[in-house]
Amino acid sequence: MSLVSGLLSGLLSDPAPVILAIPAVTALLLALVPSYRVSAALNVTACGLTFLCALALLAAPRIAGPFLIVDDLNIVFVVLNTFVAFTTSVFSASYIAHELETGRLTPLHLRFYHAMYQVLLAAMTLALLSNNLGVMWVAIEVATLTTVLMVGLYRTEAAIEAAWKYFMLGSVGIALALFGTILVYMVAQPVVGEGPDGMIWSVLMKRARDFDPGLLNVAFVFLLLGYGTKVGLAPLHAWLPDAHSEGPTPISAVLSGLLLNVALFAVLRFKLLMASHPGTLAPGPLLMAMGLASLLLAGFMLYRRRDIKRLFAYSSIEHMGLIAFAFGIGGPLANFAGLLHMTMHSLTKSAIFFAVGHVCQVKGTQKLADIRGLTTSHPALGWFLVVAVAAIAGLPPAGVFMSEFLLVTSAFARMPLLALLLVAGLLIAFGALMLKLSDIAFGAPSPGTAKVKASYVPLGVHLALVLVAGLYLPPPLVAWFRHVAALLG
Amino acid sequence: MIGASFQLFVVLGAVGVLLLLAVAGVALAGRPAGRILIYGGALAASGVAGLSALTALASAPAGLVLPIGLPWIGAHLRIDALSAFFLCVINLGGAAASLYGIGYGRHDHAPQRVLPFFPAFLAGMNLVLLAADAYSFLLSWEFMSLASWALVVAHDKEPGNVRAGLVYIIMASFGTLALMLAFGLLAAGTPEGYAFDAMRAAPPGAVAAAVVLALAMLGAGSKAGLVPLHVWLPLAHPAAPSHVSALMSGVMTKVAVYGFIRIVFDLSGPPAWWWGLPVMAAGGVAAVIGVLQALLQSDAKRALAYSTIENIGFVFVALGLALAFRANGFAAAAALALTAALFHVLNHAAMKGLLFFSAGAVLTATGTRQMDQLGGLIHRMPVTSVVALIGCAAISALPPLNGFVSEWLIFQAVLLSPDLPAWGLRLMVPAIGALLALAAALAAACFVRFYGIIFLGRPRSPSAAGAQEVDAFSRAAMIALAGVCVAAGLLPGLVIDALQPAVSGLIGHRMPEQSSVAWLSIIPVAESRSSYNGLLVFLFTAFSALAAAYVIHHLASGAVRRAPPWDCGFPDASPLTQYSAASFAQPIRRVFARSLFAARERVEMPPPGALTPARFTATARDPAWAFLFVPLTKAVGAVAERANHLQYLTIRQYLGLVFSALVLLLLVLALWT
Amino acid sequence: MDLIANFLVQGTQMLLVLALAPLLTGVVRKVKARLTRRRGAPVLQPYRDLARLMHKEAVLAQNASWLFRCVPYLVFAATWVAAALVPTFATGLIFSWSADLIAITALLASARFFLALAGMDVGTSFGGIGSSREVMISSLAEPALIMIVFSLALVAHSTQLSTIAQVMLAGVGLRVSLALALVALLMVAVAENGRIPVDNPATHLELTMVHEAMVLEYSGRHLGLIELASQLKLLLFLSLVACVFLPWGLAPAGAGIGGFALGMATYALKLGAGAVLLAVFETSIAKMRVFRVPDFLGAALMLGLLGTLLLFVSGIL
Amino acid sequence: MEHAISANLVFDVAHLFAGSLVLISFLMLYQDRLYALLNVFALQAVVLSLSVAWQAYAQDAPHLYVTAVIALAFKALIIPVALHRMVARLGIHRQVETVVSIGPTMLAGIALVALSMVVMLKATSGDADALAREDLAFALSVVLLGLLMMVTRRNAVSQVVGFMSLENGLILAATGAKGMPLVVEISVAFSVLIAFIVIGIFLFRIRERFDTVDVDALDRFRGGRP
């Protein structure tokens, strides 16, 4: 009895280790479990538990130990990530079963897949929670490798090619990020002295004022390019569309919904560092430039897409560009918009990939040309997809609308010309999405009328959250976002 | 009594009901009970909202803040005279459309795609009028667009509808983005600046205000259908079910006008002297282009949609005059012009609703919208033909109906403008006046054609010959709107007085009290200057007509003999020898459209002895497509094609991109001091 | 008492225009005949024609609708009211406040609107020709007329005919704008009344006619009413020109019998002069092709617009 | 024992090693035969391990010896050998296929070195000690040269080599930073990464190059162009 209460109190006082432990342990278990039903169930439960513990973070004290840190910034990310990971695991259970039936995957694959899923979760959470830049770097590398393996899961030529492209670009990105990390240490070293302290995030933040700005700039360039590769900012985005389209759909959801956020988180951490030092080259312009580039490029790329998953992968690039632009502008409104947009994008985009997964299964193809008239052939699925795409396109009452509203208005008030570019990009991307959507959803249906064997629960939950967010954001969340936005400067 | 807060709550309640109905529509679609419940409920809700708004016209503004929407300021809702007036207009249209829908919906083969969105559409429009902060405004605005888009693509199997929906939603989003930018300037980037009150408190500077004007014209204009942003309108309005077309054409465009008035007259501070110029120019061009295009269409609903563009042009000319007068300190004249604009808003809502209803009735009865398939319906559909005649006469601005009154008021406003100091305005206004007169005359021609081809003559197709009068609900809806047209035409003074709170709220000055004038005449400025009395003219004409009939029938012959038509001694040829829509438009096409729309006529004569019929085809193009949108889409496509190569590079080349990005940034650092 | 007097004056005016209209046409025809060395029909012939038409039975096409039967009365009434609102021998008529010059234009427009509809009702090709050409002509004639109204209104600061007439009577001097307006008004009047060179009221070569083609199916009393209406219209335009540009002798509101008598006399003189001038004009030129008419009316529109512009630019031009 | 040897000597030796690493990178750029390339790379790995060892001695940080050993064993022996055999087994032909011919590549390399010098010396004008500055500059140039190699070479193998020399630059920088934690872990992690790459090449038989020029291969692979 007292044991349980002790555990609970321990959990509440410092849930971070637990959050990391659960997926790690589960990964080992899953590697041993042969039956895919059991492992799927285990996967879901583990993710659920992790999410619950992550909720405990909200109540937990903000602590910055030598290894782990819990501050407002990463709580946002941890809770969001564990939640999406949880819903995705639910979706993946129903999705993977179908893949097994169609024989695209073997039970062995699934065993590997589930284990990797948990490893990925653990790695991402570690990257978010670690207080040590080196550890964060290692964690992100691990996350990358696991996703590489999962992208290559189908062993088709296209899949391998995608995985390989992802792998090479990712490795270079990692290398650059490491160089940046080393530079940061070298910046810190004269100030905080030799030894591990030079990599402890909380320490760096305290002493940042005394750093040497010049070297910090160099460091930021490398970090931006290194982690920016993971975020998928143009011109470093090349791996993203193929990885999304060739891997299993749950992984596409995880990539868009989680991994991009983690990489973005890394970039933000260092932007914070830069922001807290007056003498540095402002990181804003770099972020804005890459953001706009991604937005415009993705907007145009959307028009020529023939593969439904690649289509939405490019829309992820577009939105990452928006978010980067928002943080680049900075200021309370834009940062708020950025945070909100990031949250909304993960929820919506993963929801879209849930829907797309089922669509591809019922239509038996990913080719847009063969997916038509869904609202007629599969009304529920079709309308879910319409709502989700409308949400990601920034149509109300989705939360994306609010973030885009804040972004556009605040940007135009402060830098009109850039805002015009931004609006142009938004409109171009919107047109492309609607063009594709009206073919997918309306008109005479294409063959392929298999019943959907899927649970709409994750999809529905995500969409419900997104739609409500456009109308009502709970005050604590708002206060918290505003606080973080203020931190981001 | 604290302002109109009670009415505000009532309207909000109605909106809530409408939203609930939208949800119910998903469940109940498919069964007739559902149809009756949804449309009946929408009718009741709109009716209640409209009536309470009517009572709110005169009472003081009332506001309310809900803890939703933009977190730190919440959703501001406010009802003042202006929004109250527009609430009356849209709920009038909404109620009529709902009533019409009860009957019309029976013929809808995909009710599950209409029933959920119809109430949502109404709710969205109501919310736009209530919203008093930028976020709620744009949220409702875009929600309205979304719902109407869903209605446009409701019949997605019919060719062209999906494309119409696509063009519509993209143009709608363009408009929303433009308004977003405008509000961005008005809010000046401060978190609390998004409330309309804050904007009023801190009006933008001269340059910013000018930009806001331009953006408002783009944003509201694209929704209202100003040339050249009108291209979606003739595609989308006909695509929707007819009662929705009536809403989109008659009502939603008015919401756009409201948005323009709210932003330009209310939020962006005192106008500069030249603001009237672009607004008037846009209006005049829209009026002429719209009506000429309407004259060239052979699809009845598309012709109506184009005529909407014309009427929006009238409204914007009046608004431009009001701006010019206001900026140059002629409050009375400004009040007159604004009144004319609002009056025309009301009129057009009624007339266009009525006409779309009758087009829908014809569609139900004959199954076609092509004028050349119709004809002779006056014999088959007595009620529809009468109300449609009233609608056509009204929209052709014939006394004693309502269309004439607003046009008359606009002309009176034009005649006041020589007092304006600025030369630009003085040179502009008469030209605009000429454009308006031309547009009005062409509108008459357009609706002679519309009515004559559809309802008169001999049926041009079996379906037209076998047409049946539509159901009672549809008839009731049409009769109601026709009643509004007649009433507003006969008693314009009452309408004008009802408009004054809104006008004085914006201008700070009002037109003289009309209801006190002897014999219900209307006197915009002074009796010696101009006056008009619709009632008297009507009675006078009716009396003379009846007197003539009486005298002739009693003193001379009243006998009638039926005989085959003489037609200069020709035998009764086939109905196809009648004038068709295209041939009726021929003179005007040759005079006006040849250069403007590149209108061409082609006649294919079969060689002597061949049995194939001779074919005549008349083609015209919309310059907005030819010169703006087609090149634009081509350009986007070209860029997309270029960019697309980036998808097919090799890994090494991608690494090259990363590498060059790195080198570039390092160079920046190296050169940056 | 005063009210009754006013009503009397108004009534006299209505009956007067009704009575004079056929006579005017008769005079025009007579003069034209004389000018072409014919004896011509007696001046009172139009009355006889009307009476005969009125007593004939009306022959309707089988598929003529109720609209076809109502239109003649509507057209007649609208034109009559319009004519009754133009000051002929006296200004300040009691009903003249119920409609200003713009409204009068609109009344004529509605008459034309219904007539064009009637032309399409039976569904014959000639009706179609007539209607489509009629609306084309009117679509230019109306704006021209409105522009003329603008010019007058800007000079007189009113669209009330009575006020305008009084202002003119008071004397506004010679003005370029008014001259332009006068020319434009005459051109429009020619077109509106379907006179040569725009249309030929006497022809029955179907393809050259506009107005006559439109009313081809009418007969009996209906035709009579329409004829009367067009005669009224001619009278209306002549009196319009008279009261605006030659306002001398017009009796002011509430004038005595003497004033009215004088007004009548001068009015008769003006009409006579107008009729003669019109006849001379018509005999001296040839009819133009239908598709030259737009140029003709376009010129009128431009003149009107020019007049208005001048007035906008400076009040004294 | 720091005081035993003068700081001057420490500086010079470290400087020597770093400089020679850059030199070897140039040598690698210069190679046009695979085997020779592999050998030069092995040489670079040896020099790297020496410099790491020297840093370990100079900073008196024993854990760096581990890194040195890893570098020596893994990158100087195992990987080169593995690649040798792979080239033999997969029958990759021995020529290094260049996109840009050797000469311009060398010029570009020189420009890059200059760039890295400018950047670093400019950046670290402050109090950072000279050793760190020079070291960083050299490390950065090694990194850039490695990247340049990846970009300008077509063979899978030579690209892997390029990546590895890039990583050598990282290790150099890491060890140059006094008292930098986690260096060992990082080098291990990187070795894992490289192992992955090599195994990947071997498994998936990515024979000649990461990029192909024939169009139907494009159609089959890249971006799923249908």
Automatic annotation (TrEMBL), chain C:
A cellular component annotation (GO) from this entry: plasma membrane
Location relative to the cell: Membrane
Keywords, alphabetical: Membrane, Transmembrane, Transmembrane helix
Subcellular location, principal: membrane
InterPro entries named in the record: ComplexI_Subunit1, NADH_UbQ_OxRdtase_su1/FPO
Topology term for the membrane: Multi-pass membrane protein
Transmembrane segment boundaries: 12-29, 73-95, 101-123, 135-156, 168-191, 234-251, 257-281, 293-316
Name listed for the protein in its UniProt record: NADH-quinone oxidoreductase subunit H
Annotated organism of origin: Xanthobacter dioxanivorans
Phylogenetic lineage: Bacteria, Pseudomonadati, Pseudomonadota, Alphaproteobacteria, Hyphomicrobiales
TrEMBL record, chain D:
Entry keyword Cell membrane: yes
Domain of life from the UniProt record: Bacteria
This protein's UniProt keywords: Cell membrane, Membrane, Transmembrane, Transmembrane helix
Any one cellular-component term (Gene Ontology): plasma membrane
Database matches in InterPro entries: HyfE-like
Main location: membrane
Residue ranges crossing the lipid bilayer per the database entry: 6-29, 36-57, 63-83, 104-124, 136-153, 160-177, 183-204
Entry's localization field: Cell membrane
Membrane topology of the entry: Multi-pass membrane protein
Name of this chain's protein: Hydrogenase-4 component E
Biological source species: Xanthobacter dioxanivorans
